[in-house]
Amino acid sequence: xxxxxxxxxxxAKVAPLAPIALAKLVSAADASQALTLSFEDGxxxxxxxPNAAPVEGYLHIVREIASHYAHxxxxxxxxxxxxxxxxxVSQGDNLALADFQTAAVIADNLDQHLALRxxxxxxxxxxxxxxxxxxxxxxxxxxxxxxxxxxxHLQRWFxxxxxxAPTSDALVQLADAKAExxxxxxxxxxxxxxxxxxxxxxxxxxxxxEPSGYLHVGHAKAAILNQYFARQYNGKLIIRFDDTNPSKExxxxxxxxxxxxxxxxxxxxxxxxxxxxxxxxxxxxxxxIQLGKAYADDTVQEQMRAERMDGIPSKRRDAxxxxxxxxxxxxxxASPEGRKWCLRAKISFDNPNKAMRDPVIYRCNPDISxxxxxxxxxxxxxxxxxxxxxxxxxxxxxxxxxxEYRDRNPQYYWMLDALNLRKVDIWxxxxxxxxxxxxxxxxxxxxxxxxxxxxxxxxxFPTVRGIRRRGMTIETIQExxxxxxxxxxxxxxxxxxxxxINKRQIDPVVPRYVALDKEGVVKxxxxxxxxxxxxxxxxxxxxxxxxxxxxxxxxxxxVEQADARSFGEGEEVTFMDWGNVxxxxxxxxxxxxxxxxxxxxxxxxxxxxxxxxxTWLAPSTPEQSLIEVNLxxxxxxxxxxxxxxxxxxxxxxxxxSEFRSIALADHNVAFLQEGAAIQFxxxxxxxxxxxxxxxxxADFIKIPDGKAATSASKVAPDADTEAKKAAAAKARAEKxxxxxxxxxxxxxxxxxxALEKGDGVGFVAGKVSAGVAAATAGLAxxxxxxxxxxxxxxxQKVLKTEVGAERDNASSHxxxxxxxxxxxxxxxxxxxxxxxxxxxxxxxxxxxxKIL
Length: 852
Description:
6-stranded mixed sheet; CATH 2.40.240.10; single chain; globular; 18% strand; 32 strands; 7-stranded mixed sheet; alpha/beta
């Protein structure tokens, strides 16, 4: 092969930006030595040089290109610079896949290094700059930190490198390669196959959060998908704050949304506010009135809601244009009369789609100052009116939103058609819901206001800040959301799915330490063990890049009470990362609590032959003291997987959703920084939330590992909650029975006629017949009630229990119990009928053999 060639996968997990940018640098310096770029799906990154063996892997390719084109300065001016460049290239390879904590440390170091430097090494761009730039571009945590502006030297350097022609060209070529591959795909797995009329370089998406709360996982899905399409088509992403309701909005929320988007690695090409267009929207509202497509209405809210539901036109619907203009002027001035009115679109009063029944498009709200426009405006547009108009004005080509708004799509298009504005395509997707989770801002605010949680960043909250504080990485959120694809289903996802992805992300990169439950800790004296000494041990046996920790060994060590209880005298046990010991003697109190253990060292014993492998720690000394820490775990905030419409969420609040225990941790954790993720061996993954908690101890929050058992609700519903569930089930049963009442009455009339004609069953006359009829009708009602109850198995179980209890009490609510007037009988435990009248074996209706 005469021409150097690079084979790359444009869809690779780590974008191949470094090799592409280096190829662009080479081409810019000497076109005669340009590398040929070849993009293939699934291909391993490979560099093919003339008369040389193929070079695979980004790290080796970057080094080889720098070496092969050393005369262009890519590997520095001398050996010292070359050695430094190699170190940065290695660091870039690690940084691309680093978790948030590791990335933050690297970002700090790079910021310090660049304080007085224009380039990482020397006075010109080298492979070091390209490698680190590409890693920052590929790493959502790092680019989020850079864009946030906390590392001013790193940000300055990144912006400079990012603006250079070779790196800019690399981004464009990679985007083009991705687009070409997507264009040729025929499967339904690609998002872009569902993005109508999308064209390279012309796609404009927008993410329009309302600054009335913090971003949660549902918002994150919308934001990530909007950025995905904008970048996929080399287009534009607009971050637009929908600030049309001053009653709910706060500057605090807007700032938090900006920060959370940065942490998600989402950066809009432009940022705007709906309030930027208040003047324009006001003029369009007047235009709609003048076109006869909007009218002012002073119908009270409850009546308006009822009229819309029943398809009844408002009494103001046919008011003249002049009247409507006068009323809108009153609204705009917030006069006493104007405050009574709103402006409605004149679409339809009885459209089968209720979203089309003359929706409100402007409201009077003069008493609260807008956080951006102050008291300039007294009337504000609704989201339904403002959104389509601003989308059209800002050049949005594709409006992405959840399909819960699908009924509003015709309304969206109607607004654009009514004002003769440019059309915008809607691309909807399934809303992201999770079991045991509330996403409503109003309901989440209730938990904050009632002191059940500490704030919007509480680890039990589904907010971006909450789940990050719980230990979820940004990469996990992105991977999980993109893995959902263009699904239209609205389902309640189990949390174990996303936490499993998170475990896969963090397991290879979190250091391992030891912590023991403090309560009942037991000292083990190990005869024959070496005297107290220290040894460097790897923080992660499979990841030497994490470095070493200091482990203390001693003749006396501590183990947990639960482990000590499990030991049998004479048993050989493995003390992890040390060796085996034989348990000689256990000293215990009357309650069975182990007080002390004597053992004999067999440190070279075969750990494969032991059944128990336990963690341990050497006791504290002034030089190496164990550290008391709090281990914190959480349960869901509610006890029911999915709340029904009639459920009051406050009835299902988990009584206690926070669990704390004190542990003794090895001294190495003293050097951890807040936000660091680790694993306490045999306990699980934890994130250091606070170095100094309320009680002075460090707080470590447990990171769920995705196992179904750990993702289940930890606390069984209390008796009060069970009673509420039973009440809800009973209410549904009664509702179903009432629904069946008409059918029962019809059945009774038919039966009466049949008896009069003599062709019925002819059981008996009088009260027994009436009781049987009531039982039959009641049975139908109970069956209907139970059918409605099948969706919630837990409540079904409650209902069955309730039925049994009522049956035992011979309650009249259930059909098994029949009041004959002389006593009560159970139709399943006693003869149904006692009568001297011969009972027919068969009738026109059914055979009686199996009943009697």
